[in-house]
């Protein structure tokens, strides 16, 4: 039998007597709650998972979540009011002094409230790294879910040229992409779809608006779906009619940069290597300094998980990590190109989980 | 000229020298950031709005957000690294001792990180109530956006019977609803659509699964869309074929409870009154004790804003508030009924912004 997630988590958290994972209301929910309880349903607002050093776990939920909670792991305790919640916290954390929180997802109010409810003297520890380290290595079930999400969004990526014609708006294409991902079995967007045409494509985080596609425009799409709570993430850039020589060259530089970065992806590699390889190639071109973000990030139940594929990253990659590979070049007022795949790190190298034609596509 | 949002905010925050609104990464974004900057685009990860007592505002963003940030309010400061961010924090918070945070959205890590960057001795104050009070009263532009979101989801609510037939799954209907809301101009789900058939309908927060609709089943749908970042929220419960006498009676009790609650909605009313009126009616029926949540909540850019229409609420309603009206009755293993509208509080009473046939609907 494989070691349970909670036991692995606590092995990554030496010195902590317990880890408390908290969910406030939507959108302040922590995907780690679903990770440790090993289920994929439920809202779990105002719910808490308390994992003690031995890996045992209490799951505190209100009555709205009771039925769903019982389908997951952990000892489910249903509270009916604040006093009962307080009682459960005191009991669950009995003898625990150093309490880890996911301080990058738990709200300030939640942490303060739990410390008050638990009473006694407690030390707050940052369990973020322990949680990230545990979640970074995906198991077979998780990889299967991500693979399915990637297959769904890849289908849409391949269909994209069919959605484009002069006069169609960013908003219309984004809506069609989202609907199609749902139709193909996706359970919802992994994040708000980016569809950016013409000069809008130079804003890496542009939201789709009323801009209508014109001949010669760049059309950049960054999107992903969820499947069983797991995300895919990909970017395809295409052109309506012949692009300028500058944009053609930009596309080729970004494409080569992605290949150079992906070449560095393997078990045991420095995460920074992939970024630096891609950046070196871009900075040796006329687009020097125009790659203004990182090469990649971790992907899981959250679209951004804390694996940083950036120039200064100190992390090492391991088999089972799932990361993006997304170099880009942006010229304000002119346009941008980004090419992105979701990639699984393997023992021998890596595997792209997304697929679409990477060569220059003119619609 | 009307008083700016930041001036109104600080008037609600006596004693605070500044309020810092923080965005971490997706999904830990605070809609208040978009509220104070008065824009509806951008991702604004790792971005901060600093509002001083006089209502002046600095907006700290990284280079990815620069172009978008400049389309909104506030003095935009672009940081290129941590050292520069730290410098801006020190300068923006010069002379400010009592710093308000939205402690129910700012993460513990963000608050600690900002205090460290700002340096000096600072007091943390909870600005949550000040922000909530400011955002609770919607202006004409906000109401127009909510009204549009409500019109979109109401169209889907009216079409719902056409989506239903024996053998269709919860997941399929939810996907169709979501696609249709997008097609009608919605910019994304306000929350994950709930579609719960038969016994699943007794779980108030059930996520759509593979259950297939059968004759005699209850079909409960809780859904909403966003438009210009603002949400709609509504629930319609219908039946495939004749329901049992018990379910018919349940439907009628919930329908009457909603009317009783909505009758209490007006400027100056105690928020608790609406809940108590609905609850009294349900508790006088054979479904006593089966209304296991609150009657309503505030609605805005977040699907749950802190107006609590619950038995113990101490809040008063005011013209310009937008709240849900959503009584429900749940019998585990049998089924549940919930009926919900989005409602605008007005000077004289209230106005339902959502619309659909409220009488018992047998498909």
What does this entry look like structurally?
The structure is a homodimer of 363-residue chains. Chain A contains ten helices and 18 strands. The first copy, chain A, is 33% helix and 21% strand. The first copy, chain A, is elongated, with a radius of gyration of 22 Å. In chain A, α7 packs across α8. The mean pLDDT of chain A is 95. The first copy, chain A, is of the alpha+beta class. In chain A, the strands form six sheets. In chain A, strands 4-3-2-1-5-6 form a six-stranded mixed beta sheet, sandwiched between helices. Chain A has a three-stranded antiparallel beta sheet with strand order 7-8-11, covered by helices on one side. Chain A has two domains: 132 residues, Creatinase/prolidase N-terminal domain (Creatine Amidinohydrolase, Chain A, domain 1, 3-Layer(aba) Sandwich), CATH 3.40.350.10; 213 residues, Creatine Amidinohydrolase (Alpha-Beta Complex), CATH 3.90.230. The longest helix of chain A is centred in the middle third of the chain and has 24 residues.
């Amino acid at each position: 039998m494989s070691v349970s997630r909670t036991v692995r988590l606590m092995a990554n958290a030496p010195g902590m007597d317990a880890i408390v994972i908290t969910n406030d209301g939507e959108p302040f929910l922590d995907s780690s709650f679903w990770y440790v309880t090993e289920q994929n349903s439920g809202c779990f607002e105002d719910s808490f998972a308390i994992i003690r050093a031995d890996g045992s776990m209490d799951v505190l939920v209100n009555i709205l979540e009771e039925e769903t909670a019982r389908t997951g792991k952990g000892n489910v305790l249903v509270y009916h009011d604040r006093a009962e919640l307080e009682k459960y916290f005191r009991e669950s954390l009995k003898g625990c002094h150093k309490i880890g929180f996911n301080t990058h997802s738990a709200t300030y109010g939640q942490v303060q409230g739990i410390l008050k409810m638990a009473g006694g003297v407690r030390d707050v520890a940052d369990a973020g790294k322990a949680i990230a380290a545990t979640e970074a290595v995906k198991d077979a079930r998780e990889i299967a879910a991500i693979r399915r999400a990637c297959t769904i969004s890849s289908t849409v990526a391949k269909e994209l040229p069919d959605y484009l014609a002069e006069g169609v708006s960013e908003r219309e294409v984004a809506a069609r992409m989202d609907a199609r991902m749902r139709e193909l079995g996706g359970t919802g967007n992994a994040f708000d779809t980016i569809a950016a045409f013409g000069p809008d494509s130079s804003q890496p985080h542009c939201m789709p608006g009323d801009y209508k596609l014109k001949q010669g425009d760049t059309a950049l799409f960054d999107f992903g779906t969820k499947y069983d709570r797991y995300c895919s993430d990909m970017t395809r850039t295409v052109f309506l009619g012949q692009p300028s020589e500058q944009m053609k060259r930009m596309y080729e530089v970004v494409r080569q940069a992605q290949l150079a970065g992906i070449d560095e992806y393997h078990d045991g590699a420095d995460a920074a290597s992939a970024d630096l390889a891609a950046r070196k190639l871009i900075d040796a071109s006329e687009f020097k300094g125009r790659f203004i973000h990182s090469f990649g990030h971790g992907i899981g139940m959250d679209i951004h998980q804390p694996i940083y594929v950036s120039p200064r990253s100190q992390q090492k990659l391991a088999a089972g990590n799932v990361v993006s590979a997304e170099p880009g070049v942006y010229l304000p007022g002119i346009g941008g190109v980004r090419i992105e795949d979701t990639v699984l790190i393997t023992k021998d190298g890596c595997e792209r989980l997304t697929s679409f034609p990477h060569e220059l596509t003119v619609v």
